[in-house]
Amino acid sequence: MMTTTTPPVARRSPPARRPRSPGRVPWWAYALLVFATFICVFPLYWMFVVASTDTATANQMPPAVIPGGNLPDRVDLVFSTVPFLRSMINSVVVAGCVGIGHAVMCSLAGFAFAKLNFRGRDTLFLVLVLTMTVPMQLAIIPQYLIVSELGWVDSLQAVIVPGLLLVSAFGIFWIRQHLSVTLSDELMQAARIDGANTWQIFWRIAFPIVRPAAFVLGLFSYVTAWNDFLWPFVVLKSPDNFTVQIAIKALQNNYDIDLGLAMAGSFLATLPLLVLFVFVGRRMVAGIMEGAFKG
């Protein structure tokens, strides 16, 4: 007698999960970005609110979060109390010279440490990196003595020249790492065979390669010099030579602080940096990303 067997019933596999689209961003990422944006923007908004109200409104609890209508009066008071426009021009000159000088000098030093062979190169670079652990405040007293001997006290060169000489060790390290990866030794050897000297190799080959990183470095140095307070406060005496941060300090007296007036000056000092970021922000981000991927 023939027996028949029934084939086993195949189990239905669970439905496959639809793969996530590569361009799709989860909702929590947007929420995190919104929260981070709020944390970054709120101090600027709060500064604007306090600058547009009076001191009593700024100190009340709970604090006011809606701007008032006193901003034009506060701005007029800022310009009548100190030569604020002259101070902003001084800051533009100082920060511009320091930013451009740092970009060029760090590019030169980074190129030397990355591609030139000379005795003691690695030891000197190690010493340079170790200087990042030394607080810059330790140099104020000898730096002031040197500036005083040169007769530069209460002048802009007393701020510009030390800012150029104190080149950032981080900037040199960054440019060195960038050139070590992007500039090949074969390209330099080919340039030397064609008769190019070291300066021509740097200016025509190395600097165009490292220009995005140097631009970002110069922009960081510009912002640092714009916000610098301690050294200009020590060396600058007359209001006509004040930088913008010293002018903000001059808006306050020793016994009572007009919070709205101080915030109005801070708001005016922040506006040029915001305008600068609007014009060069995309290029700055591109330079940072290029250095991150190449380095």
Automatic annotation (TrEMBL):
Q: Which CDD domains match?
A: TM_PBP2
The ABC transmembrane type-1 domain covers 88-280
- Entry keyword annotation includes Magnesium: no
Renumbered to this chain, the Low complexity biased-composition regions fall at 1-13
The listed locations are: Cell membrane
Name the source's superkingdom.
Bacteria
CC terms in the record's Gene Ontology section: plasma membrane
Keywords assigned: Cell membrane, Membrane, Transmembrane, Transmembrane helix, Transport
Q: Name one GO biological process term.
A: transmembrane transport
What PROSITE patterns does the record point to? ABC_TM1
Which PANTHER family does the record cross-reference, listed alphabetically? Answer: ABC TRANSPORTER PERMEASE PROTEIN MG189-RELATED, ABC TRANSPORTER PERMEASE PROTEIN MG189-RELATED-RELATED
Q: Which family does it belong to?
A: Belongs to the binding-protein-dependent transport system permease family.
Q: What is the designated name of this protein?
A: ABC transporter permease subunit
